[in-house]
Amino acid sequence: MSLPVVLFLIVAAATAFGALGVVLSRSIVRAAVWLLATLIGVSVAYFLLGAEFLGAAQLIVYVGGTLVLMVFGVMITNQGPFAGIRTKPVEWLLGGGLAGLLFLALVGFSLRAAAPPEPLADENLPSAGPLGAAFLGVPDDRGTAFLLPFEIVSIHLLVVLVAAAYLARAKRRTPAKGAANG
Amino acid sequence: MFNPFDFAAHPGRAYMVATLLPLVPVLLLLIAATIRNMARSRSHTDSFASRVYWLFGGDQPLKTGGYLSLVFLLASFGLSVWGLLNFFEESQTLHDQPKELAARWSERGDWLRIGSAKGEHRPAAALQTGYRIDQLTALMFAMVTGIGSLIFLYSLGYMRQETDETVDDHAAHTTRRGRFGRFYLYLSLFAFSMLNLLIADNLFQVFVGWELVGVCSFFLIGFYYERKSASTAANKAFIVNRVGDAGLLIGIAIAFATFGTLNFQDLAEKIAGSQPDEMSHGLWVLMGLGLFVGCVGKSAQVPLQTWLPDAMEGPTPVSALIHAATMVAAGVYLVGRCYPLFAPEVFLTIAYCGLITLFLSATVALVMTDIKRVLAFSTCSQLGFMMLALGVGAWTAGLLHLLTHAFFKALLFLGAGSVIHGCHHEQDLRQMGGLRRKMPITAFTMLVGVLAISGTPFFSGWYSKDQILSSALGYSVAHNQHALLFFGPLIAAGMTAFYMFRLWFLAFTGTPRNATVYSQARESPFTMTLPLIVLALGSLGIAWGWPLWDAEASFLGHKLHEGEPALMSRAFAHSRELAEEHHLAAGGLALLAALLGAGYAWSRYGRTAPTAEQLKEPTGLLANRWYFDDLYDFAFLRGSQRLAKLSANVDRSGPNQAKRFTLDGLMSGCASIAMVGGQYLRMTQTGQVRQYVLVLALTLVSVLWMLSVFVR
Amino acid sequence: MADVGLVPFQILAAFLFACGVACFVTKRNAIGLLMGVELVLNAANLNLVAAARFVPGLRIEGQVFAVIVIVLAAAEAAVALAIFLNFYNNYATVDVDQANESKG
Questions:
Q1: Cross-chain Cβ contact B704/A98 below 8 Å
Q2: Can you list the residues of chain A whose pLDDT is less than 70?
Q3: B contact residues 679-698, partner A, Cβ 8 Å cutoff
Q4: Is there a contact between C38 and A73 if contact means CB atoms under 8 Å apart?
Q5: Window 22-51 of C, Cβ < 8 Å to A
Q6: Which of A156, B139, B324, B461 has the fewest CB atoms lying closer than 10 Å?
């Protein structure tokens, strides 16, 4: 029961609990808050794994960006009568069963996979510097660089930005249901 | 890389190209017609489809197709003439190297490989395609393309009625669209199939061409398909031909099963070298008979001759091309090609079959009153002459008659067409008379044709008929029990002269018997009379040789003789010597018979006007064509029609439950399975996003589980 | 972290994944669907980073991959929200069960 193990257990419990909360909560706003907890838990897990840059990025982008976006979405659309749409119990059974099967399958995979050879000690983990350098095209000691994915992802973001802006532009609110806009 | 235009190394490829050329207008016409048909429903709206429709000719029939077909066939003719001259030259220079000559003028390749031979890298059997040019093929190819081009030209004038948008068909009491393009489509397809048949070097390819010409004949006989008589005649032609083809298939099957090859050269060599080990004598005879039965069907010999007179329902150029010059000649051609494959019994059968046919058809032609029917029976009879010649071993004579007959029979048919066209579709000889004043060119050219077919000296028919009769005489002297094989054709030659001159006198001389017809009659346009003149020149001089008065000296005959199968001269050597000896006697007797026939015809129809008694509707055995049609109707048609009605009723009128077990019910059942299945499957498309997501997730989970179970 | 090993992280990631799948299968609110997708992506990311840490053959590949996934997830969330807002404008509801015009 060394410190890392204890830390891991705490973080894992928190994250798992948050995820369950997302699934089970009936109010969409509560679900958003549970999601926040889950994302923060994952971020802490990244820190535990020695990926500090990634943990920080997770907090900034996911929590500070995506989650806020979703909360905005919830706010805009969560008007009166639609606040409490329910799912039927049979659907819960179906979804839950499916998820359970999936969980068992994945756990089975990971338990049966061969144990990896001796991992790196905590001191020799790569930090943010080599990561950033790899993105900028500087090859690391094994000769790999990731400039091309970086560029592709940047273009992709630009495209998505434009697309989202176009899709969400202000339009006349049509009175009839089903009339396509734009 | 296969270069089809490498004429220097493989001059035979010119023939291959020439065969494929008529296929081009077929394809073009098909594509144009299909596109135009698809656009027709939208032709009166303002749309892209209507522009396409008007681009392809609009409501008018496709006229350029006709001109295009003519141009392509003329190109084929040019290539064939080039090939012919080239071949003659090379056959002279390479006279003593037959293998070298054959290698330059033939090629073949595997088309379909079947199985694999044990332990060897070659197929167990293969169907091949290939061509082989020899004297017979070269001459026939030139003849078919030449006469074909003339007939295409002629049809431009004759079928002018079809270029109108709507045509009133009086015989069928209906108004329909003009079909000019379709006519040339079928004609070009026919040209391609006939040429393919001619250059083929194996029985399989011949069979393909054989069937195709039968199909084209069906289309063309039934060209005016709204007329019940025409569509029935087309069916009859095809079905009777099919009976013959069954025999042909048997022959081909025996050949393939015994020898494993269908190539003519290979078969000839194997048969010459194999008797009696590989093939029992009975099987050999059977094979020959099978092949001959196919020729009986195609060349309208007794007992399968009933379709040819009815085939006159088609337009006259069709009768000229298909049922006079080329398609019916295919049977004779095949007999000539398969000569080394026949047993002696088969030759005798061929000769007697030809004898019966020539005699019976000539007798029927004596009483026919329709101008085209006379010519149809005449064709039947002349084909009988050719078969008889081939049966008694006169290979050259029979095939020479084939070539000359093509010219004068085509001339006669086209002339008849000119008469019919000029008299506004009057075909009955009893309504004509005195037409030579109104249609001089037609009358004169037809006279040339009549003289040729009667065997008048110096006309082409004389050379070939003389040779046939002298060969027949030689054979009957050599084998005295077959004397009928000489007397039959002799009498028939007299009858031929009689009925042909009867036709000419009734149509062109005397006083006109129908004033309306005579006043409306006029000479045909230039596109129709030019082919007549060219064919008349051909009927006169195609078989000339030097010296002109010697029947044996025909140039064409000599060229054909070079291509004769070698072993035949041995088998029929004795009768040939006798034929040489009695040559003049035979010629003299033939000439005598022809003069008697012609003289009798003149006395009855030419010198005086025919009496009313002579002009009444003929009855009796001859008018009913020896009752062959009635015999077949009684023996085969009634039974099969009754059976067909019974079978149809089973499907139509049983109780509803039983319908499920009929063939019709099974078909509908298959369809409804598909429909019901579709309706059930449709229920999965609910449009519910969550359901789709659920299915996705389910699939994912299943795949993962399957991977985890089966992958270690 | 060396004593913890790869497997517990993978089990945690599997749990998050299963919750994400359960979420987007059962939720009727469109935004709820999106939350499920976010959970799935995070689970995958966690798996990647754990692999980067514990498999000596990979050093930073896992983290690089994870960064790219974060970026793409953010982009996708933006577009998805734009689509949902359009849907809300047209149908005046975010209940995905009302989006059944593709019924065939």
A1: no
A2: 80-85, 119-125, 171-182
A3: 690, 694, 697-698
A4: no
A5: 22-23, 25-32, 34-36, 38-39, 42, 45-46, 49-50
A6: A156
User: Cβ separation of B693 and C25 shorter than 8 Å?
Assistant: yes
Nearest to C21 among A98, A142, A167 (CB): A98
B312-329: average pLDDT: 86
**Helices and strands, number each (H, E), in chain B:** 31, 4
Closest CA to A22 of A42, A1, A5, A52: A42
Instruction: Could you list the beta-strand ranges (E) of B115-256.
Output: 125-132, 166-169, 174-177
Q: What gap in Å lies between CA B266 and CA B256, rounded to an integer? A: 11
Q: Residues B399-433: pLDDT tens digits?
A: 999 999 999 999 999 999 999 988 888 888 888 88
Rounded CA separation A93/A99 (Å): 10
Beta pairing partners, B554? B545
Q: How far is CA B346 from CA B256, B259, B335, B579, B642, in A?
A: 19, 19, 11, 21, 36
Give the pLDDT confidence of B251-269 residue by residue, as tens digits. 999 998 888 888 888 888 8
pLDDT digits (tens, 9 = 90+) for B427-458: 888 888 888 888 899 999 999 999 999 988 88
Taking a C-beta distance cutoff of 8 angstroms, is the pair B317, B151 a contact? yes
Q: What is the mean pLDDT of chain B?
A: 86
Q: How confident is the model at residue B654 (pLDDT cuts 50, 70, 90)?
A: low
Torsion of CA A108, A110, A111, A115, to 10 degrees: 160
- From A94, A101, A112, residue closest to B694, measured CB to CB: A94
Assigned token pair, B59: 């409501």
DSSP string, A42-71: HHHHHHHTT-HHHHHHIIIIIIIIIIHHHH
- Tell me the ipTM for this assembly: 0.90
What are the pLDDT digits (tens) for B230-240?
999 999 999 99
Q: Do B694 and A106 touch (CB under 8 A)?
A: no
Nearest chain A CA: its distance from B687 CA (Å): 14
